[in-house]
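Severity: low
Component: inverse-folding endpoint
Summary: output formatting inconsistent between runs
Steps to reproduce: submit the following structure tokens with default settings.
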């Protein structure tokens, strides 16, 4: 079932039918209440008449309704009254019998004295009447029967008027609901069509243009915003992948070109053993360079995928092991490495990938620090997140490149002559992201560079 029909059914038809049923039930209850009110009025009138039937001159029997000074004013509303003798003959009635009307049949008082009997009668013309019959005794002990009738036509008329108004209002409300639901359904259908279109583009890989974001603040708007964000991330990941492929091809082209040139020169003419040996050494150096590039790419790929073995451990111990592993190279370069960490720093992390990220930070610091300089490794806890800062005493990173250095193969100008392929900080950022943290260059450091790796201290779901 389409959304428009579903909204028509559940938003208009079902509420209208439910309202109609409720109005019908309310109408029946209204009828019962009016009939009960009429019964109470009849009983009250019967009580008044039964105690005052014989208070006329000489205890002459009479109906007070017939002698009331307001008889003309209340005639349309007053009940009809009948008084019968013990043998069932009619003594008097109110109002008087019209000419040509059939005579009232005898009614013998046969119920206990003072016990009213209520009943509903239907006349020959189809009108309904409510009657009360009660037996009374005169002061002389003679039995009489008092009968009062009130037409139920007014009740039926009131109920019919109620149903006309109620059904009219239900019809109007149903039409209004139908119009509102039609408008909402069309608007919602357009919004969902936009989301479906974006999903189709995502499925087909068409990410050239940014998706149109629904401005609504409801669940559909949130879904549209989440889809737009997902498409933006996919587009960013594709662009990053394309850049990585292009940069990798560029990095591979240089050593391959050098190897090809060296081999072409060796094959151009007859060469001596020493010249051939020199060409092979040059080719071997480029092969080593390619091997380093391949290993680094594999490290970056493994940092971005696969399930990690996250366990609770001591971050300080990982940092101490990384610093100890870098001391030999630091001493060879004449550098001092010192570690500042708390006695215990428990967190949930993957030890292998975290050690790789810290090794990359230390490798960069060793690469750019001048002889006689210092490298500081500091571990602190700030607001539920551990900060691993590695600071060197090198030339520093320009402010314009502090974000770009985390992109694959990006190298600052001073690093062109230094070993490396520009993937170390990219791996650091990926490790931080997989742990639910981040990596950045601390701009507060005056001299040198401090790269910070932040990790949450609490466990995090795999991402």
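Observed output (run 2 of 3):
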């Amino acid at each position: 079932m389409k959304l428009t029909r579903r909204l028509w059914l559940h938003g208009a038809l079902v509420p209208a039918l439910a309202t109609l049923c409720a109005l019908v039930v309310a109408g029946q209850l209204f009828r019962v209440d009016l009939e009960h009110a009429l019964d109470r009025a009849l009983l009250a009138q019967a009580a008044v008449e039964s105690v005052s039937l014989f208070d006329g001159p000489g205890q002459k029997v009479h109906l007070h309704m017939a002698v009331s000074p307001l008889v003309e004013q209340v005639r349309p509303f007053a009940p009809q009254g009948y008084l019968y003798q013990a043998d069932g003959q009619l003594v008097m009635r109110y109002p008087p019998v019209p000419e040509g009307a059939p005579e009232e049949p005898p009614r013998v008082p046969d119920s206990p004295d003072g016990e009213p009997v209520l009943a509903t009668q239907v006349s020959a013309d189809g009108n309904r009447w409510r009657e009360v019959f009660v037996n009374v005794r005169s002061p002389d002990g003679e039995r009489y029967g008092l009968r009062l009738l009130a037409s139920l036509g007014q009740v039926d008329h009131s109920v019919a008027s109620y149903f006309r108004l109620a059904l009219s209002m239900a019809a109007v409300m149903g039409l209004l609901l139908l119009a509102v639901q039609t408008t909402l359904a069309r608007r919602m259908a357009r919004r969902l069509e936009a989301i479906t279109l974006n999903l189709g583009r995502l499925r087909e890989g068409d990410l050239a243009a940014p998706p149109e974001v629904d401005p609504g603040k409801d669940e559909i708007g949130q879904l549209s915003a989440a889809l737009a964000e997902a498409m933006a991330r996919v587009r960013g990941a594709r662009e990053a992948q394309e850049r990585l492929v292009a940069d990798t091809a560029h990095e591979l082209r240089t050593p391959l070109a050098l190897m090809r040139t060296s081999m072409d020169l060796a094959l151009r003419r007859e060469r001596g053993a020493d010249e051939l040996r020199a060409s092979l050494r040059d080719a071997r150096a480029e092969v080593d360079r390619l091997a380093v590039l391949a290993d680094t790419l594999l490290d970056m790929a493994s940092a971005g995928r696969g399930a990690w073995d996250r366990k609770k451990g001591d971050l300080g111990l990982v940092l101490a092991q990384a610093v100890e592993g870098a001391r030999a190279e630091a001493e060879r370069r004449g550098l001092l490495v010192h570690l500042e960490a708390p006695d215990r720093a428990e967190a949930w992390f993957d030890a292998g990938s975290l050690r790789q990220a810290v090794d990359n930070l230390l490798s960069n610091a060793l690469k750019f620090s001048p002889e006689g300089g210092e490298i500081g490794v500091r571990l602190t806890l700030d607001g539920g997140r551990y900060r691993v800062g590695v600071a060197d005493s090198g030339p520093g990173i320009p402010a314009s490149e502090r974000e770009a250095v985390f992109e694959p193969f990006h190298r600052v100008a001073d690093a062109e002559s230094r070993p490396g392929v520009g993937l170390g900080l990219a791996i650091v950022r990926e490790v931080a992201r997989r742990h639910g943290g981040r990596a950045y260059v601390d701009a507060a450091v005056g001299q040198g560079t401090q790269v910070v790796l932040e990790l949450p201290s609490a466990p995090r779901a795999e991402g």
